[in-house]
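A.,

Following up on our hallway conversation. Structure tokens first:
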């Protein structure tokens, strides 16, 4: 998958690029609206991620010009502007989605994947399931063996990331990049603490454990150890 990120904040750009490349995307980057327009007109991208407050040409004008030139590539706006009128204006300009900064990479990834599936005609899955653990993506309801499990927002994001990567080992660094926002301090032990809390809720009352520690590598969510 080929993605274009138009973002002038170097820190955010680095965070987003690194995350998507870890997911197997090829990522191009433009630091201003004019360069972004030229790149989007030149290549056939699968999705565009565009900031609003860009130098040379702002994000709204960039999107309008793309749509006037009949570029129908799915677009998601990534912006610090969080007012309802800003989101409405962004969507009316021709974008397909709008995500407010700061953000969890897992949500940005999920939204991008949804846009790509929608553009390709592939239906968005309604739920994730591993063994008797079920996560409903529409209602954000989590159950195990039919028993409701209440999770905090970050615990939910962490579980969703683990379930989307069921059977794969995900490292601490991958979890930090995908679940926490770009201001996260990598020196803390917050990942271990959240995994511990999540394991307490998901596994403690059940004989079969699903969240496994892979020594020296990270964590894996899987039905069978």
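Then the amino acids I'd put at each of the 225 positions:
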């Amino acid at each position: 998958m080929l993605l274009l990120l138009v973002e002038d904040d170097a820190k955010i750009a680095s965070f987003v690029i690194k995350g998507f490349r870890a997911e197997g995307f090829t990522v191009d980057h433009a630091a201003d609206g004019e360069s972004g327009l030229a790149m989007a007109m030149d290549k056939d991208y699968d999705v565009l991620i565009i900031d609003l407050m860009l130098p040379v040409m702002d994000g709204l004008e960039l999107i309008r010009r793309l749509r006037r030139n009949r570029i129908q590539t799915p677009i998601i706006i990534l912006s610090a502007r969080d007012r309802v009128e800003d989101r409405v204006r962004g969507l009316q300009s021709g974008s397909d989605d709008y995500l407010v900064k700061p953000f969890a990479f897992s949500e940005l990834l999920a939204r991008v994947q949804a846009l790509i599936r929608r553009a390709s005609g592939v239906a968005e899955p309604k739920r994730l399931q591993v063994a008797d653990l079920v996560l409903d993506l529409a209602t954000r309801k989590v159950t195990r063996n039919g028993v409701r499990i209440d999770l905090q927002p970050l615990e939910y994001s962490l579980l969703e990331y683990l379930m989307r990567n069921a059977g794969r080992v995900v490292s601490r660094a991958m979890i930090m990049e995908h679940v926490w926002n770009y201001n996260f301090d990598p020196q803390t032990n917050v990942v271990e603490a959240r995994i511990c809390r999540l394991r307490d809720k998901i596994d403690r009352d059940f004989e079969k454990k699903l969240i496994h520690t892979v020594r020296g590598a990270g964590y894996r969510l899987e039905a069978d150890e």
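The mean pLDDT is 88. Curious whether your intuition agrees with the design.

B.
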